[in-house]
Amino acid sequence: MNQETDEQVRVRAILDRRPGAFEALVRDYQKLCWHIVYRMVGQDDAPDLCQETFLRVHRLLHQFRFECPLKAWIGRIAYTIALRHLERRRAAPTSYLDDEVEGAIEPPSDEASDLDAIADRQHADRLREAVAALPAVPRTLVTLYHLEELPIPEIATITGMNEGTIKSHLFRARASLRDSLRRRGVNEP
Description:
Blueprint: H1 6-15, H2 21-41, H3 46-60, H4 70-89, H5 99-105, H6 114-132, H7 136-147, H8 152-159, H9 163-183
């Protein structure tokens, strides 16, 4: 007897049009979608593109074959929509960080002295600025790997890049962040 996975049960509930099933999926994956889209296109277009992502997820869910995690499949749709949006606009990607991510980057300072807390906030501010200055793809990869804590294979599924390319982007992004922080007067820990 073949036991259904949680993802299969969830998808079946949505396809069977059970009340609240799709809304629960949106709640569970909206942060991931927001991180991907927002990093690539900026604040002005992100809400519409996130909505477009979930409309596409709803429309295509019957085609999902469980060959990858549902999270990666949804992330891939968000990434593709944002990438196509940038291609249509032929515009340079913008640099934005939302408040939620800023808090995720900022180190906790409740145990530090007041001077240490100020230094930590300044360091976090400079780090946010440096991340925001990265181009869209490396910024998105840094977000997925370090903030969303997704493994490289899952990021590969989302972006369609091979794992070596992702590792290379992350390596160069970290080097760029180190250089940027040094120029801003921040020493490495």
